[in-house]
Amino acid sequence: MEICPKCGLPNEACVCEQIVKSSQKIRVTMDKKRYGKVVTIVTGFESGIDIKQIAKDLKNALACGGTFREDAIELQGDHKKKIKEALVKMGFEEDSIED
Q: How many domains does the chain have?
């Protein structure tokens, strides 16, 4: 049985990622790109979170394309109304998500 170096619990019972998710301050903004295309930008992720996996899960949940760059996730289209619900389902706290 392997032990998590951060919390000291077995890897099956590790709560590190849930603790990190609850302490995030996530900001959702909109931006216009070239030719009038709209993208939804999600920022505010701190270390300890797999941003690549979150981007993949958001793209699947919202049925859109997108990418992640540095500490931000860019989703194609206007998803400002639906993104809060999708992030809450992933384990983030509703109060920590700022529209």
A: 1
